[in-house]
Known about the structure:
The complex is a heterodimer. By secondary structure, chain A is mainly alpha-helical. Chain A is 74% helix and 0% strand. Chain A is built from 7 helices and no strands. Chain A has helices at residues 2-22, 26-46, 50-75, 79-88, 95-114, 126-133, 138-159. By secondary structure, chain B is an all-alpha fold. Helix content of chain B is 76%, strand content 0%. Chain B contains 3 helices and no strands. In chain B, α1 runs antiparallel to α2 (30-55) and α2 packs antiparallel against α3 (59-89). Chain B is elongated.
Amino acid sequence: MELILFYLTSAVAIFATVMMITRLNAVHGLLYLILSLLAVGVIFFLLGAHFAAVLEVIIYAGAIMVLFVFVIMMLNQGQQTIEQERVWLQPGIWIGPSLLASILLVEMLVIVVLGGHAETGHVVDSRQVGIALYGPYLLAVELASMLLLAGLVGAYHLGKPMLKTTRPRGNS
Amino acid sequence: MNGIPMELGLLLSAVLFVLGLIGVMVRRNLIMILMSLEVMLNATGLAFIVAGSRWGQADGQIMFLLILTLAAAEVGVGLGLALQIFHRFHTLDADSVNEMQG
C-alpha cells in the first residue's frame, strides 16, 4: 500500500519537474515547481518525517514560491503583461497542475481514511527533532541564523533601487 | 513493517537532482535557473530525509532544516541579483552577463 502511494507520488514529482524544466513561461514553470515540492512533501510524510513535510509545504511551497511570484510580477510590466494575463486566464494552462494536485489530494485522503496504516518508516516526531535541534545542534542553529541575516542584508542591498543606472558599467 | 526501501528514495532523490542539474545547464532564463536550483536543493533534502528515516534518527530532518535555511537565503540573494541584472541589461538572459571587466 505504501509502495503504491510512494510510486504514484514519485511519478507526480518527476513528471512535474520535467514539465517545470520544459515550460517556456516562468509562471507556468512555477506552477509545476510548486506541484513538485508538494509531491516531495507527501513523500516526506510517507517516510515518517511529519515535521519536515509540514515545513516543506509552509516554507518551500509557501514562502519561497511567493518570492518567485513577486519577482516575476515585478519584472513584467506594461501592456505586454495585460495581454499575457489575458492569455493566462484562458482555461487550459491550469488543467495539468490541477490534475496533479488532485492526485496528491486523493493520496492524502487515502492516508487519512486509512488512519495510521499508511505511514511507513520510523516516525520521527517533532519532539525528537526539537530536542536534537536545541541540544547538539545549537551551534548549527546559530550559524543558520547568521546565514539568514547575511541573506537579509544582501537581499536588501541588492534590492535597493538603482540610482546610477545610466553610469557606464564596469568602472565601479 | 513493510516500509519503503531506502534505495528507491535515494533513486528518486538522484533523479530529481539530475533533472534540476539539466535545468540549470539547459535553461538560460535566470528565474528558471533559480527554480532548477531549488529542485536540486530539494532533492538533497530528500536524500537526508530518506537516510534519517532509514535509521530512525532526527538528524536527517535537522539537516533538511539547515538546507531549507540555505535555500531561503540563496533565493533572496539570487532574486535580488536577478532584479539588478534586469535593471542593468533589460533582459533575464544569463548569457548577456558575460562582459565582466574589472
